Amino acid sequence: MCGIVAYIGDKPAFPILINGLKRLEYRGYDSAGVALMEEGNLQIYKKQGKVKQLENLTNGHSFDSTVGIGHTRWATHGEPNDRNAHPHYSSNHRLAIIHNGIIENYGALKTELEEEGYSFESDTDTEVFITFIEDIQKTLGVSLEEAVRVALTKVVGAYAIVIMSQDDPDKLIAARKGSPLVIGLGKGEYYVASDATPIIEFTNEVVYLNDEEIAVITRAGFEIVNTKDIPQKPYIHTLDLKLEAIEKGGYEHFMLKEIFEQPRSIADCMRGRINATEGRLMLGGIRNYSGALTNAQRIVIIACGTSWHAGLVAEYLFEDICRIPIEVEYASEFRYRNPVIREGDIVIAISQSGETADTLAAIELAKSKGAIVFGVVNTVGSSISRATHEGAYLHAGPEIGVASTKAFTAQLTVLTMIALSVAQQKGTISDVKFRELLVELESIPKKVAKALESDGKIKEISALFKDVHNFLYLGRGYNFPVALEGALKLKEISYIHAEGYPAAEMKHGPIALIDENMPVVFIATRDSSYDKIVSNIQEVKSRKGKVIAIVTEGDVLIPKMADFTIEVPATHEALMPLVSVIPLQLLSYHIAVMRGSNVDQPRNLAKSVTVE
Amino acid sequence: MCGIVAYIGDKPAFPILINGLKRLEYRGYDSAGVALMEEGNLQIYKKQGKVKQLENLTNGHSFDSTVGIGHTRWATHGEPNDRNAHPHYSSNHRLAIIHNGIIENYGALKTELEEEGYSFESDTDTEVFITFIEDIQKTLGVSLEEAVRVALTKVVGAYAIVIMSQDDPDKLIAARKGSPLVIGLGKGEYYVASDATPIIEFTNEVVYLNDEEIAVITRAGFEIVNTKDIPQKPYIHTLDLKLEAIEKGGYEHFMLKEIFEQPRSIADCMRGRINATEGRLMLGGIRNYSGALTNAQRIVIIACGTSWHAGLVAEYLFEDICRIPIEVEYASEFRYRNPVIREGDIVIAISQSGETADTLAAIELAKSKGAIVFGVVNTVGSSISRATHEGAYLHAGPEIGVASTKAFTAQLTVLTMIALSVAQQKGTISDVKFRELLVELESIPKKVAKALESDGKIKEISALFKDVHNFLYLGRGYNFPVALEGALKLKEISYIHAEGYPAAEMKHGPIALIDENMPVVFIATRDSSYDKIVSNIQEVKSRKGKVIAIVTEGDVLIPKMADFTIEVPATHEALMPLVSVIPLQLLSYHIAVMRGSNVDQPRNLAKSVTVE
């Protein structure tokens, strides 16, 4: 994933681009660059590293250009370095491009162009792409916009691009397919970006470009055609996004802010959807397909990473209360094998960003086989929200920290509401149990707030474990996916090798790892498998492992066995993951901070994975 | 697999047999027995359990017999009990036999003999075999050795046998085909055994019987003919082996022996079940439930540990060729939640030992909900084989090494045969593809043997990685479960924290772990996701990870990127796990040995987990 921003108007472009790139750094941050007009020349400045390094590079320069494009990169082709950073010139240095996505047939194009005598400065697909456009313009003798259009009919892959030209400096050309692009409409000025964050302080009127649309933007206005050259009518959205929502709000890191935001984000997620007092639950998207859902012979959940863990929790709840068989699949695996999907099967796709490439492709595959696809997505208007038949948004607000926290709990909340809704309509849940779960769900934000109070204690424990090399996380039943999620958090931001397992599987191999150097986190809250997990704790202690146990408030047994215990409030076991994951998020956060990791932008990772 | 031992000479035979059987117990230990001459009568003593139980049974007896045969059993036909233990009498109790192997056409022979009026005391193929010999001797009026020879020309299968006769008590007749047999040459005395371990303390001169050879042994000497009655000249070997080494067949550890046994154990698993030339596939247990299987709306596979990985491979194959939705569950999780199982759903339970407690409990739960349960089990007569409605045995022989190797490949083989059989009956596989897969499956033992030839190279690579703390294993599609299995092997015996992942999931978290200290094993054989995994290798290399790649013979692309490559022969992608897991078994073995681990009995682990 990369971040794209562009500006054309009457203000100096450079500060707008830099500021926008910083907002977009969550999308990638291995190199950054800008292209501007300087004394009639198309000039590119770019640098490996964060946007800060780009700013340092250009320190002292004063830029007048009122048009420009900027890019922050997460490498897909060619390693992260200055040369491979965007923007890229075309061969004659009269065109510049920024690009988010992958041109899959760039190898063939490159060979053709090399045979014609072109050479390349970088290893990127993007430089091939813009040189291809230059070549078309020359060969066909057409306008730049026509050359872009023709080029787009020839390339295979995904892209969001913005192009500027030395010969036509009062114009930007933007296009997308598969990667997001939004145009912000000012007065005599226009913004283009990967999402609205670079735009929001200037205007709340935006147009989301659709796949295979090309926008030609001047200071006087813009026009959209599709790649078949048919004019398209833009639909203007009015954004209701507050700037403060995308800033840190006093926390040291976005991740910590987002962890502590969860009482609110979970409540936001339920707002207007449930009323426990009246025993009412209403999810718009679900209502429209309630017949399909209650009659489903099978539901397949597809997701990646943290969202996949949310899917595993949902599997247990759906099977328990809806009596529908559930299969949870890695999107990447699902799409490349030959899965059984029958006409009318239900697929639920989960993605925070709504842009996850593998999930998107899996959705298309499921649709092609006749499945009805629901989206559980955070980002409104994202590709997945548009590709699915129906869905329910998380309403958790933008998640900037690369390690997902509040999106996970919001996903659990939405999936719980869907399961309850289906169970009620199917009659597979008693009224009493339905109401009990609804009341319990409504109380979760308060319980999460309570769980967050252990922050100080967790910080102390973190200090003792910050230098270990390995961690195991074990849970059973509803807490098994929580073990996977806790381990993933630690991996992502502390770079400690942590692994989650269903506790009973430990005896089939992983127990060999246990010695006095191995910390083991048990999610051991009071539920139907409590006695069993107590035995598992004893097995680890008898092999001298160090045990950190997440327990229910008031537990007196486990504190006698475990080295450290962290309490969380009691709740129904099906809802426990919403609460028991909180200490694990904090544990990973504090350990990572103490190890000096860049918590919000951990190495090698990007916020959403929009490439395969 | 069974152990056999026999003696003829001037010493009391009984202590020699008991001592020999104890040495051979690694070949099987579900029941044991001896046949001796007592006051002119051919007397059999046999008992379910270990050789120790047989000793207890015969406590107090003093045996003078200077001729005798003994057997320790690993059940293949008929459950382990006193009745099915060897030796077996022929119908008139004047012949006794010990047998290691499987007589494939015993069913037809039994029917014929029953029509002639014979009846049988056991459920074994072996009793049919010896009664067949008795019948030939009677019908043709020939000598015992001639009757044996004629019988051997009529039976299909594998055998190592020793026969003694009440009417000819100074003679042993031994023969082999496919199962090992060695004759030890003393002074006026001879030993016969499955391997040299029962012999080595008495003599180091031995003759290895060849396939389709028959030895007639008296105290005065022995003669060898082949089944065509042509005399054979024996070649006398002088052994230079330590007792300990030959118990493990010359290998340093049982695990290594079992890894190298796989060409044979996979072939054993298919023996009598497939005939690729004729396009035939026949699994007894499956035939009885073919209607239930072909009509199944859903199959749930339950297992633990390595068996669970075999289940994941089966999921892909079943969904691909049988078009039945498959759900693979951890037995421990399945049994404690409230899973959806409907009347007539099919459950397949996989377990090497057939005693895994969680799997057994999950089977009972599934049965209580009306499921039809199949077992895929190695140990004949084990609890799981008895608790299931039907099943298919692995016939892989006893697995002694705690880290499962040959059982995994045998599980894959059996599951593949089940899937092919169901697909054929359902008509969801074309005849051409069915035959293609059958031919390919039949060639797997040879390809596994080829894969084993990389042992030396793998040992060299192991030396370079023996001191690392962590490993990642990545694969896609059919090779994803192989990645999990490779990681588990390393964990179990080297205590290195190794983790398997579907390669595409790496970008959703684990990639943060990658730096110059992190070795990553890619299972990257040529298949439908080859291009994708090549991209994943590039992503790891661009972050400086060390890449060990398992590739298809002749791959030229990946060796340019990876730090180390290990080649395996090409095969159909659905069968590739049978081959691609081999180098991973060897890698974990060599690393563990170099780290000084107790490979056959790693810390904290037990061979089969008979507690929760």
Automatic annotation (TrEMBL), chains A, B:
Coiled-coil stretches: none
Compartments, record wording: Cytoplasm
GO molecular function: glutamine-fructose-6-phosphate transaminase (isomerizing) activity
Gene3D superfamilies xrefs: Glucose-6-phosphate isomerase like protein, domain 1 (3.40.50.10490), Glutamine Phosphoribosylpyrophosphate, subunit 1, domain 1 (3.60.20.10)
UniProt keyword list: Aminotransferase, Cytoplasm, Glutamine amidotransferase, Repeat, Transferase
Residues the record marks as active site: C2 (nucleophile), K607 (for fru-6p isomerization activity)
Catalytic activity as recorded in UniProt: D-fructose 6-phosphate + L-glutamine = D-glucosamine 6-phosphate + L-glutamate
Protein origin, superkingdom: Bacteria
Domain Glutamine amidotransferase type-2: 2-220
Alphabetical list of CDD domains matching this protein: GFAT, SIS_GlmS_GlmD_1, SIS_GlmS_GlmD_2
SIS domain residues: 289-428, 461-602
E.C. no: 2.6.1.16
InterPro entries noted in UniProt: GATase_2_dom (IPR017932), GFAT (IPR005855), GFAT_N (IPR047084), GlmS/AgaS_SIS (IPR035466), GlmS/FrlB_SIS (IPR035490), Ntn_hydrolases_N (IPR029055), SIS_dom (IPR001347), SIS_dom_sf (IPR046348)
Subunit description: Homodimer.
Function description: Catalyzes the first step in hexosamine metabolism, converting fructose-6P into glucosamine-6P using glutamine as a nitrogen source.
PANTHER family cross-referenced by the UniProt entry: GLUCOSAMINE--FRUCTOSE-6-PHOSPHATE AMINOTRANSFERASE, ISOMERIZING, GLUTAMINE--FRUCTOSE-6-PHOSPHATE TRANSAMINASE (ISOMERIZING)
The protein, known as: Glutamine--fructose-6-phosphate aminotransferase [isomerizing]
